[in-house]
Amino acid sequence: MLKVFLNIYCLLFFFLFTLLGLVLLPFILLVNVLFFSRGVGSTLRRAIRLYGRVLVCEGLFFAPVKVEYRTRKLTPSSIYVANHTSAIDPYLFGAVAADENSFVTSWPFKIPLYGRFMRLAGYANADDGWDSVREKCTDLLNNGCSVTIWPEGHRSRDGRLGRFRKGAFVLAVETGRPVVPVCIFGAAKVLPPGRRLLNPGRIKLIVLAPVYPSTEGDQYERVKALNEKVRQEIKKTLMGQS
């Protein structure tokens, strides 16, 4: 009974706050374009991050999402990579103190309202193929925006860290941007893969120190080394907190 009540609360909170955001969005766009000279895409990305932050830090998941930083400073135009265990993972990045962030994902583009705003914000749709993703992410990074990628490519069904695909690390080597490893704890308990109802639980993110791509060796070696180093950093942290 408590679980049902909590899910009703979350659903109402989600829809009412989303409605409020849609009402306020034209004013947010107007202020940012006129007074801060920001483009529509940049303004939307900042608004979406604020939207996610309020959702995850102000009560949607029954307890505020906690973020632990193991780095002194976050570098703008970074590539964030994280383990992937739940459909709520993209929302959690609203709690990370990055000025402007975007995602490489696919399923939100299939939701009519979400998909429209994600396209306007310049997010990269993974279903468009690697060439499109690389071009869009490179443009975002060059314009001061960070990019978040889940290198496993799909949610883990058993909680174990899967094999990392190379896309995020190719992007880092090609652009010279650092990779920021992020470890997500508790999301799979709150919303396991294949489930529709949320469970009470606590979620924590650990943001690790940026890892810069090497400048030695050919591109294949540099991508492989960066991939292995970042995966081991995430794996070690996940195991250390278990």
Structure description:
The protein is an alpha/beta fold and 242 residues long. It has one domain (2-241): Glycerol-3-phosphate (1)-acyltransferase, CATH 3.40.1130. 48% of the residues lie in helices and 12% in strands. It contains eight helices and seven strands. The chain has helices at residues 2-35, 40-57, 89-92, 112-121, 130-142, 167-175, 187-190, 219-241, and strands at residues 66-69, 79-82, 101-105, 124-125, 146-149, 179-185, 204-207. It has a seven-stranded mixed beta sheet with strand order 1-7-6-2-5-3-4, with helices on both faces. Strand 3, helix 4 (112-121) and strand 4 (124-125) form a beta-alpha-beta unit. The chain is globular and about 55 Å long. The protein starts with a helix and ends with a helix. The model has no long low-confidence stretch (mean pLDDT 89).
Give a concise summary.
With 242 residues, the chain is an alpha/beta fold. It has one domain (2-241): Glycerol-3-phosphate (1)-acyltransferase.
Give the % helix: 40-55%
SS-derived structural category: alpha/beta
Radius of gyration: 18 Å
Instruction: Kindly report the spatial arrangement of strands forming the biggest sheet.
Output: 1-7-6-2-5-3-4
Count up the helices: 8
SSE series: HHEEHEHEHEHEHEH
Count up the domains.
Answer: 1
Mean pLDDT: 89
Please outline the major beta sheet: 7 strands, mixed
For the record, the CATH class is: Alpha Beta
- Cα shape: globular
Unreliable stretches: none
